[in-house]
């Protein structure tokens, strides 16, 4: 597939651009933060987005989706990234939804996915247990008890964990704490006895939670996919979510850069626009190159998902490493070039810096991705 | 001059007798004293310690005794610093008057102005703030617009200042104003002292990305200021302004002020958050960054030390304050990015449950550090100064 | 237009029949052909392959047939490239005439000039060099001083060029000359073609830090050049000059030319020099840099591809040639630094015993790569162009 | 000790500056290279330097030296570094000489060091066996045979190895190939049977050699220091040599920077000196900071040697890491800012780039130093 947009894709992009700009500009995130909104995003807006088909773009038609590809989903998420949209694409579509889609049986898919597509159900992935992404490091035990399992342990940084209707819980059914084997996925109702989610307020004003499992009793039917073999499907879920997250980051990077360029042209010091200073020009030129390279790899990775290429994992690592570094660079340069006004809460550019750092750490930072890439290549 | 070792003995004894035990050791409860008309003393011992130090003039050890200073020589002042540090004594007073205004008053002010203002600074009676930047005059400070028009024996001052730290808590402001709008921009600026209690002065705090902040906007509307409050020559304020900026840069690059946050053991954080109580750290990329920071920090500290020694030996490093402002703040920002990487998502909490107070503090300090390379002259301005003044590169 | 798949079939058959087996696969013996009056063919098959390709005009696939080009559409040319690559065919001719001069002649030259010069370029009969830079006109190319004064039907040309690749081996030079010394500097430049066999032309090679080099200085003393050799309008050469620079930048960023050295497996070098035939590399810092390079390389190649596709789809990236020149050369320089780090002291041999030929080659290529960010417009010039033309930042 | 120069030190610095500038400017290195001088430096000049006392600055008076300190030696070496002096400070004074001084018995010291101080004897350290510095990775075996040893193996990158009169050979007497224990130092005459040195021509036109040992028979008296316990003394030798090398690098860094500043002020393009372009100014400003920091740590490390502080090893790592990075940065920026002329052989700045890269790799690059620093600190 080509690295340029088709006419249909351009149309979708335009629709998304207009809708998001109109309905969910950055001011929306600020309002959610300042009103201490208990949900952290707008359920109504999410349903509207779902009605536009966005929640189900990559879900097969049988389960209520549009059966389109990641190339399309990426365009929508990128526009959301430009406006720091808080609605649950990452948690529900990319992580939770994909876990059900890739690991679930027909019953589970039919039960969950239509509601995901309609925007009525939030599904979160409960994975991380320490302060960093380390997907096979699973200590949360699921002990076999009779015909079911009993789960105890704690998960951190569960995106949208406190408002999720269901959780996909990554648990250990056998093996040692960092073994790839012995991991099993469970589909859990958030209101089940023994589940307690506590919201954790993050600097980027996006949703995350700690979820505590205290002897949660589960039926065997709660298992998603194969017992002890969850890592394989988890890898695929994480690749998809990582690439989707990169599309979001790309949008944020592009927007932060464009706002900075605008400021460089407007702000006058020493009687001239500050964008006429060569040192700033050269830094802007280097940022431009970084963004163009980031765009190329994100587009390629999205297309590789649609074509189910074996290189998907390596492309996911490359895309995330590059987007993490680029968002870091541009987030910081945006602040620096905005000068004092850039560190005020009143100016919106700071929201991009905050999102940049959280997104950088989400699903593994650049160092993690480079390490994984080398491991995938065997060196 | 008495023998220096005798002096050291005296100082040591005096400290033993006079510094309250509660004013020694790390300042865990943030009890620092800023003085002023509305001074706050969380701990009554703080006032005691300030008053005792001020009585000897040791809040301003090298200022002349006639202005209530300590009258110490450079060598004696060094001994005083050493002994205070040795005994773990905290600073009795944190003050822009001491660190920024005082030195330029000593250099540029009239005898009357010195008599009027310096003793109050020494004793922490008046708290000062700095009225420099304006919304349209940041890096290009000399384009400032606040007007001061002479009307009889008073200036009538109008305009707006921004980034005025603690303006809402200060008693007086030292301020750059435009006294000649027709002159080339650097030649029409004067250095004026304004009583914040004057009618027409108001302030509003500025909220930063890290949350609330000490910065304010200060609005000055038709405020009448006595002519005698002008320091130096009319329209000669730019020279004073630049000298004061040098003192500010040194203050910022000095770990004590301006840079955010208490010292923390990065190695300790690494061990805790990488869950590695001993032996080699399991993440080689983070380990490498940790070492880089430790090395940078060591080299920077040695350069501060070398600069101080060179200054004493008459072998100046040249524009050192710009280098220290630049490197010190950039390094501090890198340090916080490293800390965030070490703590992972636990460093990205804003408030509430799920994070320790120190984790929240690190997140806020990390965001606050983004201002380091902007306040007190941006990194770009420091690079311009180094290129011009030290390296002699042409305009 | 015949069906494209039929065309592909024809091309494939033609290649099978016409490309000598010795002209396929990696060019280990550096047999590339530059053509010209004194063309060198290390391998007689090289001449055969050139003549056969030139006869069909496929050395210049998209040029019109009337100038001996291939007359192919963009789609057909792409198929030709694909099939040549598939069969492992080497380029029959490396030529600045093909890559730089030809495209601008097609755009700017008179019919007579096209008829005169293009066919000889297609057939590799004339080897061209580029007379642009002068000792005082590097980044500021428009300040060039080489004078051309009209005298009857001839220009009398005097001056000096530098960085003229292969001037000592070339037959003709395309050249920027000053035809109006009084006009603003960009308005007094013309684009002139000079036969290097003319009396008064001489060249001397330039030795680089990497050893000998293709670069020369070219001295032009009172050389008489027919008026008809001026391309485009008198004093209108700057437009042509800039267009040609775009072609040059693409040529340099394209891995084929300009960048130094054959492709090597960096992973293979790492395994060999870190003595680690399998499993994780023992040096995490080098492993991380290796991955960074692989990722950069992948992203850069994808960007080249995207740019090509976007150009075809009419969605240009804008000033892409500057971005590719900048990033491609900077990345190549980083790659060589990585190679030196991988090979350690074995990468730092100059000649003689103790080093393999490939180790010596890497050392020389590493040094040669330091010119990448300078030749064809420095990285700084590319950044200026990006800032102005793409980002619209003010002067 | 203070980080400023005393009057005596300033005088020494001035003498060194004048002597080196006059007698051994960069053109000297070029001439040695272009005439393919078989020695690779000037033996006569080395003797003159020795007569000035430079070869024996840190050697005790009992062995013919001046008994001064590294603070003094560093000043001389720094001036040599400014002019890329090829004379054998590193090989003979810092490596070979220190090995004898620190490990040798009275007889050995008396036999070797006076000749080192007088410039009449070249002593090299034969250590490295692969293409990188890895001091405990010693495969060259010294097998006990009767009352002596028999050495077989090969050493690479032996500085001044082909012109040395004596070699200090680091050999393995017990243990496995990377063990710290089991390393022994031997003092070997270069003309002994079974020793063959082949010069290897390096890009920086400085001396190095491969030395092959083929059944070299040694008497027990050839052992320097304790059998199997050579690593401890080797560490100290390498710390001293590393810090001395840093002084050389500092001189090269400073000189390359000053030459570049001069060029920035002289070279005109677009009708102005190129040093007036802000992007170049800012890069120059950053280089200035890096150099000042490098100078501080080098001065401190030299003084720490003189005071025999326990922090010497950590300071050596810090100094080398910083000098390596700074020389790399400034070597490359010097070329870039000189433009096309910078990559010509005719212009001298390229010699600094070449020396920078060799010095960077000599005795361990920045990554090696940071790794060692972390190990010394126990993390």
CATH class bucket of the largest domain in chain B: Mainly Alpha
**Global geometry of chain B:** globular
Strand order of the largest sheet of chain A: 1-4-5-9
Largest sheet of chain B: 4 strands, mixed
Identify the CATH class of the largest domain in chain A: Mainly Alpha
Helix fraction of chain B by DSSP (H/I, runs of at least 4): 40-55%
Strand and helix order of chain B: HHHHHEEEEEEEEHHHHEHH
Name the CATH homologous superfamily of the largest domain in chain B: Butyryl-CoA Dehydrogenase, subunit A, domain 3
- Structural class of chain B comes to alpha+beta
Q: Write down the overall mean pLDDT of chain B.
A: 92
pLDDT < 50 runs, ≥5 residues of chain B: none
CATH superfamily of the largest domain in chain A: Butyryl-CoA Dehydrogenase, subunit A, domain 3
How would you characterize the overall build of this protein?
The complex is a heterotetramer, with two copies of chain A (379 residues) and two copies of chain B (395 residues). Chain A is of the alpha+beta class. Chain A has eleven helices and eleven strands. Chain A folds into three domains: 7-120, Butyryl-Coa Dehydrogenase, subunit A, domain 1 (Orthogonal Bundle), CATH 1.10.540; 125-228, Butyryl-CoA Dehydrogenase, subunit A, domain 2 (Beta Barrel); 231-376, Butyryl-CoA Dehydrogenase, subunit A, domain 3. Helix content of chain A is 51%, strand content 15%. Chain A has a four-stranded mixed sheet, with helices on one face. In chain A, strands 2-3-8-6 form a four-stranded antiparallel sheet, with no helix packed on it. In chain A, strands 10-11 form a two-stranded antiparallel ribbon. In chain A, a hairpin with a 2-residue loop joins strand 10 (268-269) and strand 11 (272-273). In chain A, helix 5 runs antiparallel to helix 7, helix 8 packs antiparallel against helix 9 (312-338) and helix 9 (312-338) runs antiparallel to helix 10 (349-361). The model of chain A has no long low-confidence stretch (mean pLDDT 97). Chain B contains eleven helices and nine strands. In chain B, helix 4 (96-108) packs antiparallel against helix 5 (111-122), helix 4 (96-108) packs antiparallel against helix 6 (237-253) and helix 9 packs across helix 10 (357-369). In chain B, the strands form two sheets. Chain B has a four-stranded mixed sheet. A four-stranded antiparallel sheet of chain B has the order 2-3-7-6, with no helix packed on it. Classes of the chains: A alpha+beta (379), B alpha+beta (395). Chains in contact: A-B, A-C, A-D, B-C, B-D, C-D. At the A-C interface, helix 7, strand 11, helix 8, helix 9 and helix 11 of A face helix 7, helix 8, helix 9 and helix 11 of C.
């Amino acid at each position: 597939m080509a690295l340029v947009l088709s006419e249909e894709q351009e149309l979708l992009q335009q629709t998304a651009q207009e809708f998001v700009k109109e309905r969910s500009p950055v001011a929306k995130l600020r309002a959610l933060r300042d009103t201490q909104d208990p949900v952290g995003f707008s359920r109504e807006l999410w349903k509207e987005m779902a009605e536009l088909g966005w929640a189900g773009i990559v879900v097969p038609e049988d389960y209520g989706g549009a059966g389109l590809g990641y190339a399309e989903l990426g365009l929508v998420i990128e526009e959301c990234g430009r406006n720091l949209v808080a609605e649950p694409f990452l948690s529900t579509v990319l992580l939770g939804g994909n876990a059900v889609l890739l690991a679930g049986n027909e019953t589970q898919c039919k039960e969950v996915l239509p509601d995901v597509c309609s925007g009525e159900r939030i599904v979160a992935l409960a994975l991380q247990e320490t302060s960093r992404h380390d997907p096979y490091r699973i200590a949360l035990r699921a002990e076999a008890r009779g015909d079911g399992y009993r789960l105890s342990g704690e998960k951190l940084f569960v995106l949208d964990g406190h408002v999720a209707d269901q959780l996909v819980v990554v648990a250990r059914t056998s093996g040692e704490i960092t073994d790839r084997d012995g991991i099993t996925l469970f589909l859990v109702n958030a209101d089940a006895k023994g589940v307690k989610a506590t919201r954790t307020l993050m600097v980027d004003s996006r949703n995350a939670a700690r979820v505590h499992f205290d002897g949660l009793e589960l039926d065997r039917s709660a298992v998603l996919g194969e017992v002890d073999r969850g890592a394989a499907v988890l890898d695929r879920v994480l690749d998809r979510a990582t690439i989707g997250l990169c599309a979001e980051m790309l949008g944020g990077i592009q927007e932060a850069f464009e706002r900075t360029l605008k400021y460089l042209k407007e702000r006058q010091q020493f009687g001239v626009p500050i964008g006429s200073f060569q040192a700033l020009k050269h830094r802007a030129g280097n940022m431009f190159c970084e963004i163009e390279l980031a765009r190329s790899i994100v587009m390629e990775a999205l297309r590789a998902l649609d074509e189910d290429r074996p290189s998907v994992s390596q492309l996911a690592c490359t895309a995330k490493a590059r987007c993490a570094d680029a968002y870091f660079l541009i987030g910081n340069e945006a602040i620096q070039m905005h000068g004092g006004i850039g560190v005020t809460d009143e100016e919106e550019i700071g929201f991009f810096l905050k999102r940049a750092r959280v997104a950088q750490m989400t699903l593994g930072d650049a160092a993690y991705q480079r390490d994984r890439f080398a491991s995938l290549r065997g060196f | 001059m008495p023998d220096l070792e005798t002096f050291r003995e005296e100082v040591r004894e005096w400290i033993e007798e006079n510094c309250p035990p509660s004013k020694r050791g790390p300042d865990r409860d943030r009890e620092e004293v800023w003085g002023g008309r509305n001074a706050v003393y969380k701990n009554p011992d703080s006032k005691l310690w300030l008053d005792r130090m001020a009585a000897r003039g040791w809040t301003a050890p090298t200022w002349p005794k006639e202005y209530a200073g300590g009258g110490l020589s450079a060598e004696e002042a060094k001994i005083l610093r050493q002994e205070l540090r040795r005994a773990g004594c905290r600073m009795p007073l944190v003050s822009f008057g001491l660190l920024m205004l005082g030195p330029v008053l000593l250099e540029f002010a009239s005898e009357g102005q010195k008599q009027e203002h310096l003793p109050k600074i020494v004793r922490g009676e008046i708290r000062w703030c700095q009225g420099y930047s304006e919304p349209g005059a940041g890096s290009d400070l000399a384009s400032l617009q606040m007007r001061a028009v002479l009307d009889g024996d008073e200036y009538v001052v109008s305009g707006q200042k921004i980034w005025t730290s603690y303006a809402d808590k200060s008693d007086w402001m030292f301020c750059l104003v435009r006294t000649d709008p027709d002159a080339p921009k650097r030649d029409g600026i004067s250095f004026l002292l304004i009583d914040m209690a004057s009618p027409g002065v108001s302030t509003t705090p500025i909220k930063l990305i890290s949350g609330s902040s000490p910065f304010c906007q200060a609005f000055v509307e038709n405020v009448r200021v006595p002519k005698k409050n002008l320091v130096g020559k009319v329209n000669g304020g730019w020279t004073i302004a630049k000298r004061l900026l040098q003192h500010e840069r040194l203050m910022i690059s000095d770990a004590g002020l301006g840079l955010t946050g208490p010292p923390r053991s990065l190695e300790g954080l690494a061990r805790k958050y990488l869950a590695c109580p001993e032996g080699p750290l399991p993440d080689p990329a983070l380990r490498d960054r940790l070492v880089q920071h430790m090395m940078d920090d060591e080299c920077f500290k040695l350069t501060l030390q070398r600069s101080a020694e060179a200054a004493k030996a008459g072998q100046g490093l040249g524009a050192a304050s710009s280098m220290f402002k630049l490197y010190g703040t950039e390094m501090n920002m890198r340090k916080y990015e490293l800390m965030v990487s070490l703590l992972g998502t636990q460093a990205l909490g804003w408030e509430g449950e799920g994070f320790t107070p120190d984790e929240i503090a690190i997140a806020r300090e990390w965001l606050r550090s983004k201002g380091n390379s902007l306040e007190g002259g941006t990194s770009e301005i420091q690079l311009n100064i180094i290129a011009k003044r030290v390296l002699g590169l042409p305009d």
